[in-house]
Amino acid sequence: MRLKGKTEGLFVGARGRERASILIKRGRKICLIKAGDMFYRTRADRTLEVARVIAVSSDSFSIPHIRYEIEFKHPQRSHSVVEGPRVLALGAFADTYTDRLAA
What we know:
- The chain has 103 residues and is mainly beta.
- It is built from one helix and eight strands, in the order βββββββαβ.
- It has one domain.
- Strands 1, 2, 3, 4, 5, 6, 7 and 8 form an eight-stranded antiparallel sheet that branches.
């Protein structure tokens, strides 16, 4: 298996355009993204933005995309806000959500 470039993906378990999961390369690390995985980033106002992967798919040009929903958690508020579903290309998703939440 050879993954090259900044963010390169390799589909695993393909069925039509929907994919069971995708292997991606982030720098020197290779990780698996599948439905149910959670990633996060902390925004400038200390809001925690948690992205839960709903599905991995490809478009008509075979560009991998991640469908996900976001939960916003602010440290000074007792409730969180959930938005989605949203879609980002794999490269944009990997650049935005660099940290994975432990299962």
